[in-house]
Design brief:
Number of domains: 2
CATH topology of the largest domain: Thrombin, subunit H
Distance between the termini: 23 Å
Strand content: 35-45%
CATH class of the largest domain: Mainly Beta
CATH architecture of the largest domain: Beta Barrel
Order of helices and strands: HEEEEEEEEEEEE
CATH superfamily of the largest domain: Trypsin-like serine proteases
Largest sheet: 6 strands, antiparallel, barrel
Radius of gyration: 15 Å
Number of helices: 1
Strand order of the largest sheet: 1-2-3-6-5-4
């Protein structure tokens, strides 16, 4: 992927901050789909397990150095992290970010090169590259690409710069072995048709 294209795609991602009732902040990443819609992971913005507490009570996106409010427009059915239903669509004010082109037909063939953009350790959007591993029984894909805290919900891009997946987690204790969720049509069901 040309460096120019990688730099352009970086501007389609924002830092995500969610807040619990006690004010505790959690961080992640969201990718811009256009029209005020963003894609991210469910575990960053909604309750997965009711036993563990109510989950985030507010979600904000960092845009040009300021936080803007966002609301959850749709989520998958995940009840735990690293799950095929661990996705969410956020709606916020329309912003002048370049929207991502989404490609739900990417094959995720073994050893295919991929690129990840995410909010590494809440230090801003950073690029990492790696390779596709294998499909898992639960609908995810393994890959060798950095999975640092904060990158969940970021973007997995193919060599054309299309959004083909989102990072959802990593192997315990191994920041290089990650799990990603391929983009599928169901994830865009609440996004206006002209965007998907």
């Amino acid at each position: 992927m040309p460096v120019r294209l990688m730099r352009q795609r970086r501007s389609s991602f924002v830092e995500l901050h969610s807040y619990d009732a006690d004010g505790t902040m959690h961080y992640g990443t969201a990718g811009y789909l256009g029209g005020g819609y963003f894609i991210t992971v469910k575990h960053a913005v909604a309750m997965l397990d009711p036993v563990k507490g109510p989950g985030p009570v507010s979600v904000r996106l960092e845009y040009r150095g300021e936080e803007i409010e966002a609301e959850v427009a749709d989520t998958g059915d995940a009840t735990e992290e690293v799950h095929s239903g661990d996705w969410a669509i956020l709606r916020s004010t329309r912003v002048d970010l370049p929207p991502l082109h989404v490609d739900p037909s990417f094959a995720f063939d073994f050893a295919a090169p991929i690129f990840r953009l995410g909010n590494d350790y809440s230090r801003g959007i950073i690029l990492s590259s790696g390779y596709v591993g294998a499909r898992t029984a639960n609908g995810l894909v393994t890959c060798l690409v950095d999975g640092h805290p904060g990158v969940s919900g970021g973007g997995i891009l193919n060599q054309r710069g299309d959004l083909v997946g989102i990072p959802v987690g990593r192997m315990d204790g191994d920041y290089r072995f990650s799990f990603l969720l391929p983009i599928r049509a169901e994830m865009l069901r609440k996004v206006p048709h002209h965007l998907s």
